[in-house]
Each structure stands twice: as structure tokens, then as C-alpha cells.
Specification:
Mean pLDDT: 93
CATH architecture: 3-Layer(aba) Sandwich
Radius of gyration: 19 Å
Helix content: 40-55%
Strand order of the largest sheet: 3-2-1-4-5-7-6
CATH superfamily: Vaccinia Virus protein VP39
Order of helices and strands: HHEHEHEEHEHHEHHE
């Protein structure tokens, strides 16, 4: 559902905005393809793995997992990808049909919080940049851990504060101080959910710059190609605001990492 102004007029739909600004992104977060491939190469998955990807975006991660463990066609890999954006779902369907036609991939357009798999269903469960779906990193890890078999893999992509955010940054961005924790806190959140930390890949300034500035380019090109779109003015204003926010505060304050955890082979018993 799009936002509305004070007169009740529709403004740029969230998912349309995201689709326009991320058209040049292969991975829709501040991570390089190289880091994604490095992570996938280090996953301890057996043959014919079952994979869940919540807030999958364009689905590059789950597609690359299928290619890695199922060959060029993805044969033998069973997966579920869930995302609320119709634009991302359309991109993922096209990519999966082209690159992993033999994979058993179920693609679902819905809020990830409404997907309820049976406990221990998957060998790998992931959510990269979608902890808002579950209300924070700990409930996200809890959901993923419950969906994963003992000894399976859990992957999250999560921001963290590199330093204390100043009040002006929080006010400008609309973020809350307690929305994110520290890098160490993200790892500790997994440990608190009885997960075993295996790997953390922190994004560089270069990866952040690429993620942010590709949005500037995509928005400008869209405006040039669609001058009659009545939402172009707001689109460019939002991108300009985001650019100022990133250059003034975000680049030095907000970090991002991919975290790999393992579920325990013998989970601790639940207290009565």
C-alpha cells in the first residue's frame, strides 16, 4: 500500500519505489556478489538441500544456492522463497525459470511473517535485510532456527551501529536508536537463540557506496525515461533525502554484515 500526503493523495508506492531504485542491483543489500558466493561456498549442506529464503528480494541468494548444490539447472534442490513485493516476485520467477529450471522452487508473494513452516523443515533458512518482518534480529533468528533442522544453517543479513548515532541522524532518517544493535550484539543475538556462530562477513565502505549510489543512478535514469510519471518529483526528492542522509551520517555510522549460524545438533531442553 502506498503512502498518502495530508490531502489523502497517493504517493509513490513502497514497492514501486524499491523496484525503481534497485533496478541495477543484483543483490538488494550492501553486499558484493563475491561475499555472497564466499558465504555459499562455506555452507555445510548435503545433497538435495531444502532451503527457505524470507524477504528474498530478487532471489539471487537462493538461486545461487540452487546452482551451487544442484548444478546449472538446480536439480534436486527444494526451496521456498517468500517476498511481499510483486516486483521482486516477478523478477525472481523470471530468474529461476531461466537459471534453475529443474529446482523445486516455490515462490510465494506474501508477508514473511505470515509464512509458517513446520519445525525443522529446512537445511538452510535465511533472511537478509528483512528483520523488520519479525520485529528485530532475535525474533528473526528464532523463526529461522525453528524452521531449520538440527545441525542446519541459518543466515541473516543485518545492519548494526558502527558508532553511536547522533540525534540529528535519527531524526532525519526516522530510525530509532534501539532499532539496531552492535556487530557483537548481532552475534550475541544468535547465541541467545542457542545458535552457534560460524561466520560474519562485514560490508566495506566500497560495498555500501555501490549499494547507495546505484540507487541515485537508477532514479535519475527512470526520471529521464519517464518524465510524465506524476510520481517522479517525489521519487527524486526521496532519493535526494536518502543521499544526504547517507553522506552526512549513514556512511560513518551504519554497518552491515552477513551472519552464518548453525543450529545445534542437540538443542538444549526447554524449561518446563
Amino acid at each position: 500500500m502506498g503512502r498518502k500526503d495530508m490531502r489523502g493523495r497517493n504517493l509513490v508506492d513502497t514497492w514501486k519505489f524499491y523496484d525503481i531504485t534497485h533496478r541495477d542491483h543484483v543483490v538488494c543489500n550492501p553486499t558484493s556478489i563475491g561475499k555472497v558466493d564466499e558465504l555459499i561456498a562455506l555452507l555445510d549442506l548435503g545433497p538435495e538441500p531444502r532451503v527457505l529464503d524470507i524477504a528474498s528480494g530478487k532471489g539471487e541468494f537462493i538461486v545461487r544456492v540452487a546452482e551451487r548444490f544442484g548444478g546449472s539447472s538446480g536439480r534436486g534442490v527444494q526451496g521456498v522463497a517468500v517476498d511481499i513485493s510483486p516486483y521482486c516476485i516477478a523478477d525472481l520467477r523470471a530468474t529461476a525459470a531461466r537459471r534453475i529450471p529443474a529446482a523445486e522452487l516455490e515462490i510465494i508473494e506474501m508477508d514473511g511473517a505470515d509464512y509458517h513452516p513446520a519445525a525443522g523443515t529446512f537445511d538452510l533458512a535465511s533472511c537478509m535485510g528483512g528483520s523488520w518482518v519479525f520485529g528485530g534480529i532475535r525474533p528473526t533468528l528464532r523463526f529461522l532456527a525453528q524452521a531449520t533442522r538440527p545441525g542446519g544453517c541459518v543466515v541473516v543479513g543485518q545492519p548494526f551501529w558502527k558508532k553511536e548515532p547522533v540525534a540529528e541522524y535519527l531524526g532525519w532518517s526516522g530510525m530509532a536508536r534501539d532499532e539496531f544493535g552492535s556487530h557483537a550484539g548481532n552475534v550475541e543475538a544468535g547465541e541467545a537463540e542457542e545458535l552457534v556462530p560460524r561466520l560474519a562477513l562485514v560490508s566495506s565502505d566500497d560495498e555500501w557506496d555501490r549499494y547507495e549510489t546505484l540507487q541515485w543512478r537508477a532514479a535519475a535514469r527512470y526520471a529521464d525515461l519517464h518524465p510524465d510519471d506524476p510520481e517522479v518529483t517525489e521519487l527524486l526528492a526521496r532519493v535526494e533525502k536518502s543521499r544526504r542522509e547517507y553522506l552526512s551520517w549513514g556512511r560513518d555510522t551504519l554497518g552491515w554484515a552477513l551472519y552464518l549460524f548453525a543450529t545445534r545438533q542437540n538443542p538444549a531442553p526447554t524449561a518446563p
